Integrase (Actinomadura fulvescens), 412 residues
Amino acid sequence: MTLDEGAAPPQPGDPPPLRGAVLSTDTATASGNGTTGPTQARHTTEPGPDVVPVARPDGTLAWPARPLAADALAKLDADLGQVQVARLGGRRIYRRRIALLAEACTPETFGLVLDWLSSTRRASAATKRTYVDDLRRVWAPLARELGHDAFAVGCLSREHVRMWRLRQEAAGVAQRSIARYVACLSSLHVHAAGRLDTPLVNPVTEDDRPRIPTGNTATSTPVLETHQVRAVAACAGSDLDLLVVVLLYTLAGRVTEICAADVSDLAVESDRTVLRLTRKGGKQRALPLPDRCTRLLGRVIGDRTSGPLLLDAAGRRLDRHDVDRISTRLGRAAAVLPGRDLTPHVWRASRITHMLDAGIPLAEVQEFADHANPATTIGYWERRNRAHRASAHVDQAITVFDDLAPDPQAPR
């Protein structure tokens, strides 16, 4: 099932879409015989306007003909974007997330999920994309394994989630990942419970939410020291590689923000080049660029005046996976973070930590990093101080052995 690229979402004369509850409080979901099955409860309101995309026989999605619903869904589709699903030779195959979501869910749950994603509590496009990917890649496969044709709200029990968690732990899946997956499932069920007139049991309990210790340096994002940042940059074999490193570190940016930037987002303000980024939560920021970064950008962009800021060799927009591969490759070449990948978020965590090391006030760091909660910024500071204190403690302890045989590795 695909959504036609470049086509206007709704067109008069499209096949009538499924009647369901999404993006509206005056809609309802009902089965063909007027009853509801065991895994999908009925909505509390009566059927209303056609507002949900429906699958055509050829596998494409037909958009609702009502302009209000079509416009709302077009916005949601733009937020969800597309995702790479395959690679044929050197050609990458992309599909729209909304179409993949429609395939992963029953029609009734598809409507509920769209309604859930449209809430202001999930304003960030990155959050919406992550939730959709978790539903289609984690929970829909589990539903099919258990004998369901597709994922539906209520199709998983607490026992299913418990057994799934134990399986993930046995496979070595990170506790943070498990916590994110169950948070997605729980949030959807909490939202759905407010839309249904029959009781809906949340399959996620506190007993299956991994506890992530704050400041746990074993599982937290690692931080590069400044000499390691320079070492990685020195391994860049092209202007594009170096630009990726410079932008991620200098702007303390999130990889999705930088990948989404266009050439048209560059501007000159007060004799300084700025890059306008759409940050988490839809916040618009104009960030000044250092002169060296501006010159590097000029070499990479050339005479282009439009299109994506960052392109690969084939002229396609770099996505977060491309940037992750560039960063990881450079990290291995520089031999930093042994046994761990140099992910894009390491650059952000490193820049924030280095700002705190330099004595920049917490409030300024919070503003620059666009942390909605000051506790997030404080967490970087606490983790750094904890590491310094631990180093001081062990260095003090080793002095007990100073009068013993000299350390053969110590400088003479």
Remarks:
- The two ends are 71 Å apart (CA to CA).
- Residues 1-49 have pLDDT under 50 and may be disordered.
- The first strand starts at residue 54 and ends at 55.
- The CA atoms of residues 11 and 34 lie 29 Å apart.
